[in-house]
């Protein structure tokens, strides 16, 4: 794992940043639990680099080959360019596979329980009601203060009250924002936009 990172750093320093970054990303991820890692592993990072550099596909031979070449010599390897394309294709396939997996999960949830999508509108209505109830409560506090104490002491506490009110609404509003954004993305995909 550490030698793979070393290979990535050496490639990065020798003018091959895309390949270097891909090798470092692969080394930093648990191969079996991450789709990009498993796809990159299946194309064989060490095998591909060994073939591209014309050496044995073991870490020490690859490091030795990278160290012995100048950046220009390294860039001249056309097989290294092919390897770079293989990595980019593998990463795109992994990303596409992950998105398709999430979409399939969402489809199965909706098919299994059509009411599953009803939480977003309900969450929005209750968040809106909570907002207006909170504003009404703040207004009632202000009116009570003005009537009972014939002064504007309430204004001194207004920043604290508004900060607390914003803090209470932060969680529901952020959940609603994320849900709305993703729902909008789903609608765009269904409409054929990207």
Q: Please identify the structural class as seen in this structure.
A: mainly alpha
Q: How many DSSP H or I helices?
A: 9
Termini separation = 37 Å
The share of residues in helices is over 70%
Q: Can you count the beta strands?
A: 0
Poorly predicted segments: 30-34
Q: What is the H-and-E element order?
A: HHHHHHHHH
Strand content: under 5%
Mean pLDDT: 74
Largest sheet: none
Task: Give Rg in angstroms.
Answer: 28 Å
- The coarse overall form would be elongated
Could you describe the 3D structure shown?
It is a single chain. This protein has nine helices and no strands. The chain has 194 residues and is an all-alpha fold. The protein has two domains: 110 residues, no CATH class; 78 residues. It is elongated. 13% of the residues are buried. About 3% of the residues have low confidence.
